[in-house]
Amino acid sequence: MTEVTMYCTRFCPYCISADRLLSHKGVAINKIAVDNDPDLWATMEKLSGRNTVPQIFIGEFHVGGYDDLAALERDGKLDPLLEPILKARSG
């Protein structure tokens, strides 16, 4: 099943905003806290090519950070990406 994974830190305002947006959509998020774990941070950088949080993945698709997620929402492109996840969850 496709899932949403978000590499984040506990107190990052952009991480909190991304969490709120996705939770509002009814999506469960696999949150990977990279706060104090250099190995997880390195994994995030390797997967995303970026060194900032959050880094959000919908399945294998790298969304990017919160600004990228918000742009998808604004452009009406986020719901189609989330549709398989929501369908699988509902039955």
Helix and strand layout, with pairings?
Elements: E1 4-8, H1 13-24, E2 29-33, H2 38-48, E3 55-58, E4 61-64, H3 66-74, H4 78-90
Parallel strand pairs: 1-2
Antiparallel strand pairs: 1-3, 3-4
Helix pairs in contact: 1-3
Question: How helix-rich are the residues, as a percent range?
Answer: 40-55%
- If helices are DSSP runs of H or I spanning 4 or more residues, what is the number of helices? 4
| Corresponding CATH superfamily | Glutaredoxin
**Sheet bearing the most strands, described?**
4 strands, mixed
End-to-end distance: 12 Å
Please characterize this protein's 3D structure.
This protein has 91 residues and is α+β, with helices and mostly antiparallel strands. It has a single domain, classed as Glutaredoxin. 49% of the residues lie in helices and 20% in strands. It has helices at 13-24, 38-48, 66-74, 78-90; strands at residues 4-8, 29-33, 55-58, 61-64. Strands 2-1-3-4 form a four-stranded mixed β-sheet, sandwiched between helices. Helix 1 (13-24) packs parallel to helix 3 (66-74). It is globular.
Short description:
The protein is of the alpha+beta class. The chain has four helices and four strands; from the N terminus they run E-H-E-H-E-E-H-H.
Q: Which labels suit this protein?
A:
91 residues, alpha+beta, Glutaredoxin, 20% strand
